[in-house]
Prior knowledge:
Elements: H1 13-20, H2 30-57, H3 61-64, H4 68-97, H5 105-120, H6 133-149, H7 164-170, H8 175-178, H9 182-203, H10 206-213
Amino acid sequence: MGNVTQMAPLGNWFDGLLSVFKRAAPIVSVGDVEDFIDRHAAFGVQKCIIEYCRARAGIQWSKLFKEKEFLEALDAARWKAFGIGVGNVTEMVDATLRPHAGDKRNQLVDALTSCGRHVLQRYPLPGGFAEDFWAGEIAAFETRMAKVKMRAPHAVRFIPVESSHAFFAFVPIHADLRGLDFEMIQNNLRVNLCRSYETFIKRADEAAVVADLLRPAAPVKVPAL
């Protein structure tokens, strides 16, 4: 499994977005799933936030995107929303694979929860964030997946709905200027996740992925004393 980190510095974000939907190798393993979650969570978060800010700024967008204070707020917003993106993509993968898991659907959710946790653990602490930032993000993600485990999967287009209110609060545009733009943000998240779903079903060997996710962990060998 490669340590693919997709939340690149802001100056490199566009190159990362372009690479998300290029033809890529099939998804057949746990490591492939983790890399997919990482790439597509970063894609959905950054594309939604940056496109919204450009649309809201209008003809002043190029000036806004040169302001240090705004760029710092934009960078912070990406990181705050990344855990939501990881949750959205992980839940989408679960909804897609669960029909292939038979009576082991709970084990599947547990395995995918581990995948999302590993993605969040890939990144160092962003500058200016509290030391417990990632611990809080991981706890929130695990709480979300525990709820997913207890219910039937949502249709992909509905998966971002519940978390979109929290996402909207992270957008680095003053609340007075955001106005009634919530549905714009929510629909952007839904469209991006549907595109990620289309990519996943094209690339994933679903039976092979489920088999690898449900594979028992290798026993730990303890040397004899």
